[in-house]
Amino acid sequence: MKPNIKNIAVLTSGGDAPGMNACIRAVVRTGIYNGVNMFGVLQGYQGLINDNIIPMDARSVSNTIHMGGTILKTARCLEFKTEEGMEIAFKNLQARDIDGLVVIGGDGTFTGAQRFGKKFGVRVMGVPGTIDNDLYGSDFTLGYDTAINTVIEAIDKIRDTADSHDRLFFIEVMGRDSGCIALRSGIASGAEAVLLPEKETSLDELIAQLESGASTKKSSSIVIVSEGNKFGGAYDIAKKVKERFNHYDTKVTILGHLQRGGSPSSFDRILGSRLGFAAVNELLKGNTMHMVGLRGNSIETTSIEEALTRHFFKLESDLLEMTKVLSI
Ligand code: F6P
Questions:
Q1: Phi-psi region of 250 (alpha: psi -120 to 50; beta: other; left: phi over 0)
Q2: How far is CA 248 from CA 85, 129, 217, 225, 244, in A?
Q3: Which residue from 84, 188, 230, 280 puts its CA 20 to 30 A from 153's CA?
Q4: Residue minimizing CA distance to atom 15 of ligand 1
Q5: Residue 20 Cβ < 6 Å to ligand 1
Q6: 175 close to ligand 1 (CB < 6 Angstrom)
Q7: Does ligand 1 lie within 6 Å of residue 176's CB atom?
């Protein structure tokens, strides 16, 4: 039986990601279209605890689809990990008769949602919003496409100077436990090697690859280092490589948080709109404790539990193999 949902709140939590605003807009407008009162929670779970909850109407999300960041703000909230924190948050929802919650975020956000939903029976629908692309159940998470575009724009510029000076660059990109950004931006920017957390590359292997390039007259090279890789940061790897392979002048660039900002790509605006629309419709149908995601070209649901536990299988190893061939 369909629940009679009258009030839905939406929040963004964890690291912001381009496309979150497109998603918030879709959530708010889909709810209003269906006669639901909509609320926005400011600063993620922290806002739930602090009772920072505001009513939203169709105009609250006007002119936001093109904006990076999140108009609802975000936070990483330690207090929500405690029983007391969750209880306060629940009381604040109860006080407004909020019977559905859309959470947009990454694995930390979903872990919180799972505990909260289980403990208090709150109807929760997750939207995968993280540049890291590290949730199972969606081929792409919100913000990932824009982040890759941002990264390749930066690498293209670095390549100009690397080529002019015949240098070897180590470029560190984000992805705490996930090499998705590194792998795809490596292909799109023509990088010589990519170091990922999911698949260890030995120093010997990396040096052999660089030597082979140098011996076939490559005058410059780019190595993309995912921040979660086992060697350490890009500076550490650059040092280790230089000790054994001194063919090029070596430089390091850490791209850092610029990867999280910026206007979302068309892909992320459309994905955010589709996922937000689907999240509310799923709640209205009676679905809960699931995540909406893109598989192929369809929007499908996956239980939050599965989304959290299976993400380590996401590495596109065929693309990694291809990178090796295309960078000779
Ligand atoms: O949003 C995900 C992510 O960008 C990770 O790749 C990175 O490790 C982390 O966030 C850094 O986040 P913060 O600056 O919020 O600590």
A1: beta
A2: 54, 39, 12, 18, 11
A3: 230
A4: 15
A5: no
A6: yes
A7: yes
Fold for domain 7-143+264-309? Rossmann fold (3.40.50)
Domain residue extents for the chain:
7-143+264-309, 146-260
Rounded alpha-carbon distances, angstroms, from residue 31 to 67, 91, 110, 168, 208: 21, 22, 21, 52, 56
Q: Is 318 a catalytic residue?
A: no
- Residue in the block written with tokens 């497109």: 22
Question: Which candidate in 132, 134, 145, 268 is catalytic?
Answer: 132
Q: How many CA atoms lie within 13 A of 165 on its CB side?
A: 13
pLDDT in tens, 87-140: 999 999 999 999 999 999 999 999 999 999 999 999 999 999 999 999 999 999
* Helix orientation angle between 266-285 and 144-165, rounded to the nearest 10 degrees: 160
Angle 281-127-36 (CA atoms, 0-180°, nearest 5)? 35
Please indicate whether the domains covering 7-143+264-309 and 146-260 agree at the CATH topology level.
Answer: yes
CATH number for the segment(s) 146-260: 3.40.50.460
DSSP-derived 3-state class of residue 322: helix
